[in-house]
Design a protein that fits this description.
This protein has 187 residues and is mainly α. The chain is built from eight helices and two strands. The termini are far apart.
Length: 187
Amino acid sequence: HALRSVIEPHRADRQWLYVKNRGELYHLDMNTPISIDVIRYRHLLEQGHRAHDARPAEALERLEEAVALYGGDLFEDDPFAEWCEAERKELRERHVKALERLAQLHAKQGSQEKALSCLRRALRSAPFREDLLLTQMKLLAKHARLNEALAAYDDHRRLLKDDLDVDPSPDVQAFRQQLLRSARERP
């Protein structure tokens, strides 16, 4: 009743278009013209990933559409909904992967700011992914933005210390040292 009162257009005459039932069994009629964001999101991701190598412009467009659809975790207003935790995690990981691919595509096109924006968004969803941090730091360093790369490292180090009481990986620390050497050698 509650679902029908929200989505059914013809409630008064009880001509159910979307929520149908057979006795006590209720279901969403997937044969009706309906758009479900999660289904559309998955479809756009698949199109974007398939087009990644052969048709980068199409991949960029589809992945941008998918990322725009992602409004946060599935049923994030109910963080204790254990019944959807696996799908919630899977969708979040796919979102991060889409942002990572978008960053690669933007970087190949020379759109450094768009690539960095994608990497920052990915890191907000997956803050402990040091591979994303290294990609971000390397892109910043490539464009002579050493201070920003070092600041990203410092933010990450604080996050790890505060949340997990650990230090960044040796690879991340080594890249930081490389950046510091480059900064000292600059005139």
